[in-house]
Amino acid sequence: MSESLSNDYLLYAPHPPASTLAQWLEECNHITRQILSNISVADQMVPQINILNPPLWELGHLTWFHEFWVHRDGQESKPSFMKNADYLFNSSEMAHQDRWSTPMPSLDKLLEYNHRVIGSTQDLLRAPIDNKAAYFIQLAIFHQDMHNEAFAYMWQTMGRSMPFAPFAAFTSTSKLEAKARDWIHFPKSTIQAGSEQGSGFIFDNEKWAHSIDLPAFNIASTPVTNGDYLEFLESPVNLAQSTPVGPPSHWKQEGDTWLERFFNEWLPLNRASAVRHISHLDAQRFCECHQVRLPNEHELSLLMSQKQRNWQSSNLWEWTSSTFAPFPGFSADPYVDYSQPWFDGSYQVLKGGSLFTPDRLKRVAFRNFYQAHRSDHFCGFRTCLL
Ligand SMILES: [Fe+2]
User: Fold this and answer.
1) Distance from residue 176's CA to the centre of ligand 1 (Å)
2) Burial classification of residue 351, based on how many CB atoms lie within 10 Å of its CB (0-12 exposed, 13-18 middle, 19 or more buried)
3) What is the pTM assigned to this prediction?
4) Could you tell me the distance, in angstroms and rounded to a whole number, from the CA of residue 25 to the centre of ligand 1?
5) Ligand 1 centre from 289 Cα, in Å?
6) 203 CA to middle of ligand 1, Å?
7) How many angstroms separate the CA atoms of 77 and 88, rounded?
8) For residue 342, what is the DSSP state?
9) CATH pick for 170-247+275-385 out of 3.90.1580.10, 3.40.50.720, 1.10.565.10, 3.40.50.880
10) What are the per-10-residue average pLDDT scores of the chain (386 residues)?
11) 2.40.128, 1.20.120, 1.10.3470, 1.10.10: which CATH number matches 8-158?
């Protein structure tokens, strides 16, 4: 088995047929173009804070990323359709704060750049493709899916209207049926963590499959709800703290009524819905107060891999107690900055997927990761008994 940095991705077979990749690309690029085509000049500007990116930069960046890996072999020496593309749009090189002050090409120019790059890939996909091309095309599509989701949570942060339709219906999936919480018991077991060769496309942080001895545990069948969280906020234990946990920033109280904001709409707080936009730090404080704990990534993966649906999805990325770290056998794939720079102990693993995550990214082995203080993405949590 080759574990060299440059060749592992050739082991990520089988790949979907070219026609499927063409369809995925069409879908995800349509969403991006829809978001950007509808944006007003005023909305091209966003506040300069570290959880946002200027929308024009995002469009240039995701197009550059696609072109760089699919059409330029990951080499700056190969020409780009866009002048200065590497300087402007390589996220590893353009510092976050400079994305506001550096003059960007116009929206029309960026849409034209996007059209040419994606069109070139659609031409490639009219014939069968090899593993290498399939790997980089999937990498570019999944990267774009993640940036589309980032548009959704940036718009939520800013209180703008929903930028694209969710992949699952908001009304039926995010308002949980009021259902009693069960604790699902898993006996002591040995499970496989990570992904093995031949699993299809994987990210480098899933390398490689290995056995984990998992002690017995009890995990909640349902996520923590708005009602649970409100009760916690108002509990004497929380209020007695020197710095009590406050309501999430998308909640407000009018008289005795609590409201929550979904994009630009204030709705009555539905107590049965999964609570969202809670940081890992606040989720931990909830757990301490209730004498429960967050599941680790293996426990949550095991729950989410159950065929028998005796557990309820939150349609959110769910926090785990696992700090993002390499598995045994890790080596960085060609996009070296995907995982490796973030193994510094300040990122926590999340599992699952939100309403704005397409099904193709919702593999149980997929490891999402964010810093513990973040709550702007679509995140929630469930608990385990101590
Ligand atoms: Fe990116």
Assistant:
1) 32
2) buried
3) 0.95
4) 16
5) 37
6) 14
7) 15
8) G
9) 3.90.1580.10
10) 63 95 98 93 88 93 98 96 94 86 93 98 97 97 98 96 88 52 95 95 97 98 97 96 96 97 97 97 97 98 90 96 96 95 97 97 97 98 97
11) 1.20.120
